[in-house]
Records
---
Amino acid sequence: MTEHGEGRGAIFTAKYNCEKLVYYEVFPDIEQAIAREKQLKHFKREWKNQLVNEFNPGWEDLSAQIVRDPDM
């Protein structure tokens, strides 16, 4: 999470200057997570924004929540 926040270690986050985690989903296995990621790639930005607005209306940084959550 630190590397993402600092724009290091991940090409996408560095290229697009991503600084906050505003949305996430938890899956029991990697195959389901990859399938969902591929599905979300095809969503229009408007739909993605709606997902974030429903999950995190204030668009707060959730990275600390991920680090504290033992189920992650």
Note: The chain has five helices and no strands.
---
Amino acid sequence: MAIIGMKEARKLQETYGTPLMVVSRREIEDRFQMLSDYLPQVQPYYAVKANPNPDIIKIIKNCNPYFDICSNAEIDLIKGFGVEGKDLIHTHPIKKEQDIRYALEQGVNWFVFDNEYELNKFVNYKDQVKLLLRVSFPNPDCVVNLSFKFGVDPEHAIDLALKARELGLSVKGLCFHVGSQSLNPYKYVDAIAECRRIFNLLALKGIILEVLDIGGGFPAEYVESIIPVRNFFMPISDALNRFFPNIRIISEPGRFVVANAVNLILTVIGKSNRANVWWYYVDDGLYGSFSGKVFDHCDYPLLSERQGVREQCIVAGPTCDSFDIIYQNSSLPRLDIGDILLVPAMGAYTGCSATNFNGLAPAKTIIID
């Protein structure tokens, strides 16, 4: 799962220092190739929120020049790479009216909504905007249930689309997100089938939809193994072919593209034996790259360059806050100050939510082939 070995990690530590994020260009390229191979009918729009690092965005743009954005700052970031507004989709269901106006000024005209109060914000721009109605599909088989905060119940989707038409707005399609780090592909299948039903009912009422957005949530491999990529995408692709053979289909992959393309190198900066338990203090933590443990509910594997008997230990971050403990019950060989740890799968929802708390800068990032 690691993209580099311990010897290379040690050399990079000596050259660049730590904490250090190491990004594999090839792994990102391979991920887009997998999407092309296994979901050939789907146009991916990279979810910028997963990792907006400019060096990573540059790689992604060369693979796939379409992006899912959720804010003015993300629009500015992506347009700075020469991407046109028409190749962006604004997927945040709740926006300020001035955000809609700014996006339109930048050439973005695809937006998402999920309630009638949001529709009112678009009325002044009804000749410019193209709307996707977000439908809710709660999913217990995912790490983050993204239908808890957003999305209209399927039984109310018809009325909401009709309300949009009454206001003179153009609903062009449906979108959904079955949840982040979704482990069950059949949740997508169920959602696709239900969207077909909504498409058909709206057609009977004179609203012909043109686009289906199946969201993101495709899983990455962390501590636990996941279903093989091919097996995960196969039922989704089959369902799309069965229910939507002639419709434009898009997706919003983020984690799947970048999570496994980045490794983090840490250095042990201190150690202590407290109540017969070894504590190891490293130079990144919950206020930095491991913010994903808090916000993304994610666990990351820790790899040591040392061999030997593993023992229970606690791994803590570098700040003076006692909250900053990465693992309460880790299992590692006996470590010394100056040792390095390698952490795979650190590309998604990690550095993007890191802070400068205690005056500690987030990890540096380098690109390797």
Note: Residues 25-258 form a domain with the TIM Barrel fold (CATH 3.20.20.10).
